[in-house]
């Protein structure tokens, strides 16, 4: 089989660059080999690009497409709602039905507020936590991503030199143009170290601790035994709130997210991505006493497009699908098959990597000799070689994120997984 060509995508991006900065509308679509791609259609686990290539997709829209592309249940629900309107600037039954479903599924959710994106939801939940506690400082962790706003875009991917001492890391900006003052309310710590977290919380000035309950943006790292439980206990002892950012883990690890998967309910949580299978929606969730501060406690939360009608329809269809009996067992089986196939392909080719994952999500740590426990372990990744691996797979019709993450959908059938494993066997030999 001849390697696929992406010349038309290259031409497309060149022309698009006359109107779009870099030819794209998100920096996270830059940096891959051979360059940003342009697509014409998507269905199930398959993308079709402007070159006419058929690509097995593990980007899944950077995570949201847990039901695959253009699923019938979502398509029908959204199409039906479009006959009634698009944006009311008021409430709808679909909004209430979506909130009710989320309250039934997520352990933390007694009340819900919908937002437009995970980044926006994080801003809302941090404001809520500061108002509820009367404090201003927030603990976040190295390698955890909570959106692209100035006050949280710190220590996402610093070099070890820039990060400084492990016990007291420097707050390191990810982007030029960030205001240094925006980090003044932030305390950065390494994740999965309960003793360090307890010690900092004991100082008594922390409003909230925000974390990915399973580290998925940079890797696929599980919390150490007792870490989530200990973090919640330490927060309650010291008057702080524990926030789970379930943008990636929500509805993917289990219907109720990582909090259900690990059996630890935080004080507040945000959800996004897989909640509406590609439609723009996110949510802030928590108990009644905290969430009602938005309504009666003077805490502002707004947004023109919050609970937009089509996104609410998509939320209902998606949550009904992912909460169906057996859905996550099947998703876990697919993910395990893919992980095992990749592990064997690498072993046969002599490629060193640490491969780990959860239902619907795996991560390839190329160059790692041991399972990582926190962000600093991930700095040993061979990122350049992994990009070469992704390019080698792309030429064979498989598209995977260049940061090591693979999202798996309910539409990745055994035949598709077998085709993927065959492609990665060839790609592994190529980079070896």
In short:
With 432 residues, the protein is of the alpha/beta class.
Q: Estimate percent helicity.
A: 25-40%
> What is the subunit organization of this protein?
single chain
SSE order, as H and E?
Answer: HEEEHHEHEHEHEHEHEEHHHHEEHHEEH
Helix-strand category = alpha/beta
End-to-end distance: 20 Å
Give the total of beta strands: 14
Strand order of the largest sheet: 4-10-9-8-7-5-6
* Poorly predicted parts: none
Biggest beta sheet attributes: 7 strands, mixed
Radius of gyration: 21 Å
Enter the CATH topology name of one domain: Aspartate Aminotransferase, domain 2
- The gross shape turns out to be globular
Mean pLDDT: 96
Which architecture of one domain would the CATH scheme give at its second level?
A: 3-Layer(aba) Sandwich
Q: How much strand?
A: 15-25%
CATH superfamily membership of one domain: Type I PLP-dependent aspartate aminotransferase-like (Major domain)
């Amino acid at each position: 089989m001849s390697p696929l060509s992406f010349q038309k995508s290259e031409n497309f991006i060149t022309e698009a660059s006359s109107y779009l900065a870099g030819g794209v509308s998100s920096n996270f679509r830059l940096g891959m080999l051979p360059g940003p791609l342009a697509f014409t259609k998507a269905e199930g686990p398959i993308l079709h690009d402007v070159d006419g290539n058929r690509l097995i997709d593990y980007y899944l829209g950077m995570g949201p497409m847990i039901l695959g592309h253009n699923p019938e249940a979502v398509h029908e629900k959204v199409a039906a709602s479009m006959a009634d309107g698009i944006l009311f600037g008021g409430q709808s039954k679909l909004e209430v039905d979506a909130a009710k479903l989320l309250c039934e599924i997520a352990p933390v959710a007694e009340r819900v507020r919908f937002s437009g994106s995970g980044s926006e939801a994080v801003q809302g939940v941090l404001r809520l936590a500061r108002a509820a506690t009367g404090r201003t400082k927030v603990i976040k962790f190295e390698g955890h991503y909570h959106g692209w706003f100035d006050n949280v875009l710190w220590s996402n991917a610093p070099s070890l030199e820039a990060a400084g001492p492990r016990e007291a890391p420097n707050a390191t900006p990810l982007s030029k143009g960030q205001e240094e003052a925006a980090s003044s309310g932030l305390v950065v710590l390494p994740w999965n170290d309960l003793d360090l977290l307890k010690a900092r919380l004991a100082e008594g000035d922390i409003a909230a601790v925000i974390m990915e309950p399973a580290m998925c943006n940079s890797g696929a790292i599980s919390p150490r035994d007792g870490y989530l439980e200990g973090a919640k206990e330490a927060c309650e002892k010291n008057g702080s709130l524990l926030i789970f950012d379930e943008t990636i883990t929500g509805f993917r690890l289990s219907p109720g997210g990582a909090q259900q998967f690990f059996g630890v309910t935080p004080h507040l949580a945000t959800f996004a991505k897989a909640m509406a299978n590609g439609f723009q929606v996110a949510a802030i969730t928590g108990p009644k006493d905290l969430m009602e501060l938005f309504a009666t406690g003077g805490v502002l939360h707004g947004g023109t497009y919050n609970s937009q009608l089509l996104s609410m329809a998509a939320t209902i269809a998606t949550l009904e699908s992912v909460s169906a009996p057996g859905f996550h067992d099947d998703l876990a089986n697919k993910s395990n098959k893919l992980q095992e196939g990749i592990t064997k392909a690498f072993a046969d080719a002599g490629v060193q990597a640490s491969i780990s994952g959860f239902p619907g999500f795996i991560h390839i740590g190329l160059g790692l000799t041991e399972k990582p426990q926190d962000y600093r372990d991930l700095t040993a990744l061979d990122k350049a070689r992994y990009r070469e691996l992704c390019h080698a797979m792309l030429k064979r019709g498989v598209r995977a994120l260049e940061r090591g993450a693979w999202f798996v959908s309910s539409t990745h059938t055994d035949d598709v997984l077998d085709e993927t494993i065959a492609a990665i066997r060839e790609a592994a030999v190529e980079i070896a």
